[in-house]
Design a protein that fits this description.
Length: about 575
């Protein structure tokens, strides 16, 4: 027998489905993109689930629709209305074009497809029922113009794929995220998202970026943004980005980018945006960016991956430079510091700090912060209470501090020690949080619970996080629409109940949902980072010595929880070599 043989159509369709249909959110993406390509002005997405997972997805639009023959042909592999020859690939303006989506979805689900061509003189629509890629029934029914696709039993015939799906909360969070991204990049289309029969999300197709952003994140969030608009080099840019001085994130979850109205993920574009901020962006922090980038379709290759999420630029460096310039000019052409940021500039009473000096606080004036040294003293006292009274390790002798960030010391052999004070304190705090998470007293109840408004995506995934958060010391309870109350926080610091911290913790935990230990670790690392001494904080000699004493009592004093070094040693021999004293 020949070793080489041609795969049968069923196997081919399952392979294609594995590339295109990763999860329920993939189905939503492909069906909504088809609706947008069909000139839909209104798209309705309905999702249902039970304890086993998402059980039903329905997408209905008022687009062009199609006749009965085209409806049947649309479920053939590589059947498409959007290209007809190789040259068409060089200038694609539609979201879909590969002709794989419907065939791939039908191969691993039960599909009911109803469509009526816009302007048709016939009162009837075409309906197909397809199970596992096989047409079960074909009939004529009464239906409005447009298309309705109902997906039941996703992965019912591929149990291996089904078992790799995450919890309902996680899969639903991915659906929310996908619909939000599609709505932001198609602002002239009205979107409605329903879950279990209840409306969870709506936009009105006004074409306004602020309107859609407000629909996703709330009206208050739009006040933290500044517009980006104009043509720079190869690209035209339209959208909004975070104003300097407003809330930033430690993760890249709020980049909503599209190329020619196609929502994409691109590390290169994210890098260009951050470079545009320059020194206006704190190290390790990320802004929000809602940007639609328009350029000649011939300059961008969208035929890189079956999901069409990745793109490649023919002149990548020029595109990056153009986007960087657009962001830079948006931030420097006008005074972009937000009103909310200006409200946070205050003067502490002279009796607190000895003299009136302007202080930037991450909280409102009514929550007056402690004076800088008093704050440091409190942070060190928290970790000292859990640290061993004595340590057998030698504690380096403090010599001074550089840049209010690095502690200079020497060890018992006279080598020079440079310690990153934030990384060091983060290691101390993390070890103590880990120890407390294994006990029953990890949390402290707040006298006044803190309300926090969560996004739809955060609310969807939060139920899966509650037990892990409780182990870390956090207790959260629902309190009205989109609002939860923080009733308990880790013992180490009541400031860990600040809404910004909670958002950061949920964001960090999202990717680990389902793996309890990984989620707990992410939560503890984020909490540790937020509750400790920061860089650019002056310390007196006694405080620096206390910090080094606590660091030496840890099991892993040489790295922070994220793997960054806490300490650099410059030996006497290395110093001698640097000064050519060999």
């Amino acid at each position: 027998m020949n070793r080489i043989h041609v795969l049968d159509e069923e196997t081919i369709s399952h392979i294609a489905a594995g590339e295109v249909v990763e999860r329920a959110a993939s189905v939503v993406k492909e069906l909504v993109e088809n609706a947008v390509d069909a000139d839909a002005r209104s798209i309705r997405i309905e999702v249902s689930a039970d304890t086993t997972g998402i059980t039903r997805i329905a997408v209905t639009d008022d687009g062009f629709g199609m006749n009965s023959d085209d409806a049947l042909l649309a479920f053939r592999q590589h059947a498409t209305s959007k290209i007809s020859r190789p040259e068409d690939l060089d200038g694609i303006t539609t979201l879909g074009f590969r002709g794989e989506a419907l065939a791939s979805i039908a191969a691993v689900s039960k599909v009911t497809f109803t469509t009526k061509e816009r302007g048709s003189s016939s009162p009837e629509a075409a309906r197909l029922v397809i199970h596992g890629g096989e047409v079960i029934t074909r009939s004529a029914v009464g239906a409005p113009e447009g298309t309705s696709v109902i997906i039941d039993g996703l992965f019912y015939n591929t149990p291996a794929r089904r078992k790799f799906q995450k919890s309902v909360a996680t899969e639903l969070a991915h659906v929310y995220d996908m619909v939000e991204r599609l709505a932001l990049s198609n602002r002239n289309v009205s979107f409605v998202l329903m879950y279990q029969g209840k409306e969870r999300f709506r936009t009105f197709g006004t074409g306004s970026y602020p309107d859609v952003i407000a629909g996703v994140f709330g009206t208050g969030f739009t006040r933290e943004l500044t517009p980006v608009s104009g043509t720079y080099g190869l690209v035209s840019v339209d959208g909004w980005i975070t104003k300097p001085g407003s809330e930033m994130k430690t993760t890249q979850t709020r980049f909503y980018l599209s190329i020619n109205s196609r929502q994409v993920t691109s590390r290169q574009l994210q890098w260009a945006i951050r470079e545009g901020y320059g020194t206006l962006l704190p190290k390790g922090m990320y802004p929000a960016a809602f940007l639609d980038i328009t350029l000649d379709p011939r300059e961008v290759d969208v035929n890189v991956h079956p999901t069409k999420k990745e793109v490649r630029f023919s002149r990548e460096r020029d595109v990056m430079r153009s986007l960087q310039d657009a962001v830079y000019h948006a931030l420097h052409e006008e005074r972009v510091f937000s009103g909310s940021a200006e409200e946070k500039i205050m003067t502490l009473p002279a009796e607190i700090v000895g003299e009136s000096v302007p202080v930037y606080s991450p909280v409102r004036v009514r929550n007056l912060p402690a004076a800088p040294f008093k704050q440091t003293e409190k942070q060190l006292r928290r970790t000292e209470s859990d640290a061993p009274a004595e340590t057998t390790s030698f504690v380096p002798e403090v010599l001074g501090q550089i840049g209010d960030t690095y502690i200079i010391a020497k060890n018992e052999t006279g080598d020079l020690i440079v310690v990153d004070q934030h990384a060091a304190h983060e290691r101390i705090m993390y070890d103590q949080l880990v120890a407390r998470s294994a006990s029953a007293d990890s949390g402290q109840e707040l006298i006044v619970p803190i309300p926090i408004t969560l996004s739809k995506k955060e609310i969807a995934v939060l139920p899966d996080l509650l037990d892990v958060l409780a182990r870390a010391g956090y207790v959260l309870e629902p309190f009205g629409k989109d609002v939860w109350m923080v009733r308990s926080v880790p013992v180490v610091s009541s400031t860990l109940g600040d809404p910004e911290v909670i958002h950061a913790i949920i964001s960090e935990a999202l990717d680990g949902v389902g793996n309890t230990d990984e989620v707990l670790d992410r939560v503890l690392k984020t909490a540790a980072c937020r509750a400790v001494v920061k860089g650019n904080t002056p310390l007196n000699p006694e405080e620096m010595q206390r910090l080094l004493r606590q660091l030496m009592a840890t099991k892993s004093p040489y790295t922070c929880p994220h793997g960054r070094p806490t300490t650099i040693v410059l030996s006497k021999s290395r110093l001698a070599g640097m000064f050519l004293r060999t």
